[in-house]
Predict the structure.
Amino acid sequence: MISFKRLNHIQICIPKGKEDEARKFYTDIIGLTEIPKPEALIPNGGLWYQLADIQLHIGTEDEVNRSKRHPAFEVENLKAAREYLTSKNVPIKEETPIPDQNRFSFIDPFGNRIELLEIKTSL
């Protein structure tokens, strides 16, 4: 049996050589904090970011295909996140409603789907 502790990181991919474009989106628009990659992994390309208590690793590949796979991040104020992304001309995709969550997704400049969600609280 495996005793899991927590999610450590998520990796998505971008085309090789697109780190500057990714940095503009993930650092400048989304507002994530870039963290240094281990020295041994720098030749592989890509970027690493810290998000709350997990990391987002952005690796590089020769080909990136759009897919249903995606990370989903819980946020504190989904409405404000939606308004912010819309103000930055990031297209929003409405997701199928599910109980106890409000959510939407967007596609980064490299075809990666990112979901943002907020847990509904009952009063």
About this structure: The mean pLDDT is 92.
